[in-house]
Amino acid sequence: MDTQLAQLMINGIAVGSIIALAAVGLTLTYGILRLSNFAHGDFLTLGAYLTLLVNNLGLNIWLSMILAAGGTVAAMLVAEKLLWSRMRSIRATSTTLIIISIGLALFLRNGIIFIWGGKNLDYNLPVIPALEFGQLKVPQNQLWVLGLAVLAIVFLHYLLQNTKIGKAMRAVADDLDLARVSGINVDRVILWTWVIAGTFTSLGGSMYGLITAVRPNMGWFLILPLFASVILGGIGNPYGAIAAAFIIGIVQEVSTLWLGSQYKQGVALFMMILVLLIRPKGLFKGTI
């Protein structure tokens, strides 16, 4: 029982790393653009498939991840140009934005199925034996996922706290109109928000493909834990989203001891509802 619990906690940390990366992008787009983007999970899926595409051309998996991140950012910027900027210009309601994002999610998912099919696919990688620590077995891919997530989170912290664009992003998140009047280039902040969100989300999808199969609905199954992380961590707070993602990842995996794997989504939903009832603003202070 103890070994099984420890094994599930290790799995939960790996899943939490992936949720954390994607949740950062989701909470940034809400905190800065006030957009609840239900297509976020499908952009994560797109990142995984673009990684697969480049990797199958014979490129190294890590280089494939970088190029896929660029492709995902480009797709997000196209959506910004064609959809979100126009919706902001007419001051569309949050309900309208949610409906459009759901439509975009369906468009992306069906586009992926049309191009790659509905089968589970795998990266072209050598078989690497798991590391053994007593009775525990830790797949090396899970260690890579955790290491990359930590590096990405450290980079995000440096960007938000020590760079001009990071400070501008925090100002826009606090008060967009005041930031604009203060001379901050809001359009540039929006551009960087999508670049950061796209990069982190794509990396999350690529790494999810490392520890599972690449499949069209992978992002859809993560969208509930993503929103739960954003709400649990305080909407608009990337650090809170990261902490909440690890909590949700671990709790989801450990819950399979008693509930079975089919109820993972239910656990994330239960945690989200519980937080909304007890502490609607989340465990941490909202906004960047």
TrEMBL record:
A Pfam family reported for this protein in Swiss-Prot or TrEMBL: BPD_transp_2
InterPro entries: ABC_transp_permease, BCAA_transport_permease
Compartments reported by the entry: Cell membrane
CDD domains given in the database record: TM_PBP1_LivH_like
Chief localization: membrane
Sorted UniProt keywords: Amino-acid transport, Cell inner membrane, Cell membrane, Membrane, Transmembrane, Transmembrane helix, Transport
Membrane topology: Multi-pass membrane protein
Region forming the signal peptide: none
Listed transmembrane segments: 12-33, 61-84, 96-116, 143-160, 189-211, 266-284
Family: Belongs to the binding-protein-dependent transport system permease family. LivHM subfamily.
Protein name: Branched-chain amino acid ABC transporter permease
Species assigned in the record: Anabaena lutea FACHB-196
Classification lineage: Bacteria, Bacillati, Cyanobacteriota, Cyanophyceae, Nostocales
